[in-house]
Amino acid sequence: YSGTTSAYHYKKSGSSWVVASTMPSMTYNQAICEVYDGCIHMIDTYSGTTTHYKWDGTSWTLVATLSNANVTGPANGNPFVAYNGKLYSLSARDIMEFDGTAWTDLGENPKFTKYNTTWNNSPSAILKGNLYIFGGTVNSTGSQSIWKFDGTEFKELSETLPYGGPRVAVTYSGKIHIIGFTNNYRLHYTFG
Fold first, then answer.
1. Is the pTM of this model over 0.85?
2. How far is Cα 154 from Cα 133, in angstroms, rounded to an integer?
3. For the chain, what is the HEC assignment?
4. pLDDT interval class at 140 (50, 70, 90)
């Protein structure tokens, strides 16, 4: 929920869920997490500042605070993914890369350059060594764009998803499954 100071970290213990830790003291908007380098990494943006923490199994540690308006954005549903030994945050105008030590601004994302919009609410998944990002209306029919990242360059594919709002993407049995919704419909596409 936007603007709350409460967040919870639970773990499974037998048949019950128990509190795993006290979360960092900050204002939460819509935090997202990713496993990277043996730790859980969490980013969240509130009032123009993105905060990055990591959980090492024992405690939360502040990794970085980013305040450049070009690199911050709401976290909910946006790509925050471990790929090729690095973390990528793709929620705002610029693409951010974390190498385990520091964040680097890689410049304006190509979707913003082409469509003047970000990958907001765009799930991502890895298939055959490439990172794919799904989402973002590309024409009047509401088709959703598909982007591919090979570790060097982002490219928009000619293929699109039909109209709909992709929310989750997972790799399963050699394909990416994209699940979402639009109006009163639940959607499930496969890719790859």
1. no
2. 10
3. CCCECCCCEEEEECCEEEEEECCCCCCECCCEEEEECCEEEEEEEECCEEEEEEECCCCEEEEEEECCCCCCCCCCCCCEEEECCEEEECCCCEEEEECCCCEEEEEECHHHHHHCCCCCCCCEEEECCEEEEEEEECCCCCCEEEEEECCCCEEECCCCECCCEEEEEEEECCEEEEEEEECCEEEEEEEC
4. low
